Records
---
Amino acid sequence: MPVAPRANIPSDLAPLAAERDANDLESISRLAFPRYAGQEMVAMDATKTEGFAHIGKSVIIKGELSGSEDLYVDGVVEGTIELQSNSLVVGPNGQVRAKVNAKNVTVQGRVEGNIRAVERVELRKSAVIVGDISTQRVAIEEGAYFKGKIDIQRDADKASSKSESRAEAAGT
């Protein structure tokens, strides 16, 4: 006897679901999208911040914030943010008044304070930044507001290997 389809299955796939276990969305998607059978299906609405720790809109943090995982801020943070080898995303509702130190920083909201990123800083069109940026790479979308200076750093590995090779050459 067929199982009644779940409410979240689109109506055009309901007949397929009725023939199969309604909870087996993988087999339903294989029938609906035979071209992609055997390939891993990824949800289209999955955000890039899926594995991030989140600070929600209603959260206010004052003081030092540090961690060893990626962080998404959509609330208010005042003080310092230390994420040495992790990424920081300031969401569209995020307000950061802090000194920021992270591997990568993406800003969609507002940041007042200096940003130091080991690899990259990205300012989206809704970003408002007042402070200095120090990083290896920077991307600024049209429409973003930035007031401060940018210091582009050399790649530390390349710089150190060049100085080592010069020292070796000088020693011979």
---
Amino acid sequence: MAHDDARETIIHNFARWAAASSARQGSKIRGRDWYEPIDKIRNDLDALLSNKRPSKDKFAKWHETVVEKLRDDTREAVGWAAKILNMVTKVEIYLAGLGHPELKRLIHPPIDNILIDVVIQKCVKDAGASGAKKSGSCARRESPLTQSKPTRSVWK
């Protein structure tokens, strides 16, 4: 197996594992049972990662189509199908650096609860220090950031 082929196999396997791991609670399908449906969309992923510059509209249509394929194949809710696809694209695009650089601006952002907590705390701290209800970039969004007890719920 050539180096590039081995690397692509490792990336794909890690992407499958990460996506399947994200479906531990609430999903009807769990763990490795996601692997086959993810493998079935491999050609769709390869088309996305072909290094062609994507447009926002084409990406949105691609995403909708692939989510529908996952949903139809698994009989899982659209939200779970989208979550699985988003996890796969995060690994392949953000972590592995595959595809056109513009894809990073189109896919679901790689935000986790730790980052969200840091942003919330910084905005609350900044707002408290200035005596204002809103501060800097936090002022752009009406959210729990401007309340006394912020929560993550609006960020999900």
---
Amino acid sequence: MVHKRPPIAGDSPAATASERLRVANINRQIAEELGVREQQVEATVALLDGGATVPFVARYRKEITGALDDAQLRTLEERLNYLRELEERRITILNTVREQGKLDAALEAQFWRPTAKVVSKTFIFRSSRSVAPRPRSPKRRGWSRWPTCC
């Protein structure tokens, strides 16, 4: 399982600095959620990014991870994947809205506030053009309960 985006040749130092800041924020958030030290999270993320599996880390790398157990490591891996996907999605959505010319400072500040994928999806739909809602009930679709053929 690949956890980390490899650096691209065109990455600028400013882009890598902002990436390091995002990684630090993700590590800090995971450490707070699990109630462990940030150094434990950083060491575990480094092992997972290096290709180690959770059972391997739990069994053979306890001294590096600070004796995190299997359940904590699995939770850490799940949250790491979730938060990284969320960050990628946020950046994609932000770039899309910026290309549309609808991004201002207040909207960008509001955009970075949510912490769930569902909220990010809602944000992109609000910023795009509106679409008429689909009818949900059979009656609205024009179907009646009884056939009218007989």
